[in-house]
Amino acid sequence: MMLRGVTLIYGPPGAGKTTFAAWYTYNNYDKIFWVSAFEDERTFRRNMAALGYNFGEKLVYWEAVLAGAEAFFNTLLDAVVREKPQALVIDSVTEFLAMGGGLDILHNVIYRAIKQGGVDVFLTAEREVAPKVAYVADNVIELAYEVYPYGAVREAVVRKIRGGKAGYTLPFVIREGTGILFVTPTEAAEARVMRIETGTCLDVAVGGLYKGLLHVLVGPPGAGKTWLMLKAVKSLRERGVKAEYISVTGGGFVYVQQFGVESIDVNLDLGELYAALATVKADVVFIRGLEALFRLYGEQLLYSTLQTLLRVARSGPAVVISLRDLHDLDVLFDVIVNVENRTVTGVRAPGGKIGEKVKC
After folding, report:
1. Which residues form the AAA+ ATPase domain (predicted)?
2. Rg over CA atoms, the chain
3. How far apart are CA 241 and CA 329, in angstroms?
4. Averaged over 22-48, what is the pLDDT?
5. Out of 15, 165, 334, 340, which residue is the most buried by the measure of CB atoms under 10 Å away?
């Protein structure tokens, strides 16, 4: 994601606007001028350092004193000209515009900062102010934030990108020590589908597993889904393929011990699951236990989670989950395998003996 010119980052309180601006500027600029209306420098630096963003001397911080709009913005422009930063962050523009009559002056400051100084400008704003500022922005990022019983869900909706593709959503989490972690890459490119042999019955039934595709193993409790997943993980690793096993609620520990495969255990929390997905670097990712979330919180959660997992798969790895049934959402899966009594039948896949029962 390349953000040049003026970038507007908006959303409700707690969505992560300040953190998003810090993440991008910290990773892309050597000198940043940061203007804040609500946070002192010591608190800001401490909070950002806890997330892994140690700005050090690359950051010039200005604790703004809200006064008349014209005097404030003129003083700001003088400071930007003097400091010569590569990026200017105004956090949050909502407070500055509340002074009254500041929109035209803000526009003038932005224009002069960019045109005269070549500075990229980042504005954070509350949702109600965003329409007043969006027209001056080259890039518009909306941050969505909802808190549910199953965890907090954050998404960055790319509304506009100068010279680039927009209209896509990036789920993300914020974690101490690592800051912002995107569940899917910040670029919208899709990966090329590539077949991977597993050394299991899946190779015969559906041709193996496929990078870039979303797979599901479907069957009743005790059918052998967890057993098959772990057998595939062990076999793939023995073949030199990077494979990870994520277990929601930690179920299936007997099989984990049997195969000697370590498990990434997460609680019934969608944020924890997304954090795990954002940190693993694997060719194949297996996920067991999602159904516990859906039984507690409904099939709408299943649908939205599967959409996210589909985007994860499109970004590169083969993603394999297990379910008791498809819940009429089979359209979201590229590969469908029925499992019963440790026998598999391919229902949908690019290859393999579709429709034939294969003993595992």
Report:
1. 3-147, 211-343
2. 24
3. 29
4. 94
5. 15
Closest CA to 182 of 316, 320, 301: 316
Residue 112 lies in a domain: yes
Q: Is the domain of 86 the same as that of 226?
A: no
pLDDT tens track for 268-313: 888 889 999 999 989 999 999 888 877 877 777 888 889 899 989 9
306 & 329 share domain: yes
CA atoms within 13 A on the CB side of 284: 27
Whether 165 has a pLDDT exceeding 90, the answer reads: no
158 shares a domain with 41:
yes
For the cut 90, the answer to whether the pLDDT of residue 8 exceeds it is yes
- Regarding whether 212 and 162 lie in a shared domain, the answer is no
Residue 72 has pLDDT above 80, yes or no: no
Residues 176 and 227 in one domain: no
- The domain of 146 spans 6-182
As a whole number of angstroms, the distance between CA 129 and CA 302 comes to 33
Place of tokens 């994860």: 312
Statement: residue 191 has pLDDT above 80: no
Order the strands of the 168-175 sheet from edge to edge.
59-63, 32-36, 87-91, 120-125, 6-10, 139-148, 151-160, 168-175, 179-182
CATH of residue 155's domain is 3.40.50.300
Neighbours of 70 (CB within 10 A): 14
